[in-house]
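hey so u asked for the seq, here:
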Amino acid sequence: MARILVTGAAGFIGSYVCQCLLERGEQVVGLDNLNDYYQVSLKQDRLDRLAGHTNFRFVRAALEDRVALEALFAAEPFDRVIHLAAQAGVRYSLENPHAYVDSNLTGFLNILEGCRRQQVRHLVYASSSSVYGANTAMPFSVHHNVDHPVSLYAATKKANELMAHSYAATYGLPCTGLRFFTVYGPWGRPDMAYFSFTKAILEGQPINVFNQGKMQRDFTYIDDIVEGVLRVADRPPSSDPTWRGDAPDAASSFAPWRVYNIGNNQPVELLRFIKVLEQCLGKKAQKNFLPMQPGDVPATFADLDDLMADTGFRPSTSIEEGLGRFVAWYQGYYGV
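ran it, structure tokens below
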């Protein structure tokens, strides 16, 4: 029975990953700091869903707490680490940049060091579609250069990929980065647009629609995301024998390191997304059209060829089905 560390265990994706690992019979240690970036009660309720499992143990600690992280890795022989904890959000990085350095850079270094010392068999970590930044060639491919981030959040995620590569190259630590594309579903994050849209529409409040609604996002349902995470976690990367230093491929390496996109491969226009949400809610939205916000990009679209070829992953949840499930959960959870 494998022992797996999942960071961000009280988070949206992390709680689902823990649940699926426990259902597979794995031993899971969940780490989270339960910060107040959004309502702590929602995070606690996610954890409560895991509390009944005998193979689950929760540790409350911050990623940047070096002493706590060193003690955790010294006490627990982890087989794999699935690192999903981070300071999330593009717009919040404009207000509180230091939180991103503490969690996403210093915290990630502590995770890498723990994995190195324990000789963990595979580190899977969350990157983001935000790393594509100013890129406009669609769909976004892991083989594209991603050196032009447009937010500090994106820059920290690109830095994570580089830091992981250095540990893969220097210490032989197998590392896989996953560039998530707009994850949604029940138990989601309140700072995400679909969540705040639902709240506003039900309360009869207007919603802010940026870039005059001319946005596209590769919305990906949580069940599809978790399937992809577990498929990747079960497959540690190895050296790519075809990699060449005189023509370097951005997606692989001479070291045991990979990055993958994990999305739906079907971008949806924001106005269509709102229309489906209105249909699920049975109520029209009052739209407040605004210009593009700093740090935003007009479109995201994931090329999944590498992930599908290597793991057999294929997303299967339509936006209609996914939003319907989210709305049903939201109305039940908040009693509306």
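The chain has a mean pLDDT of 95. The first strand starts at residue 3 and ends at 7.
lmk if thats what u needed
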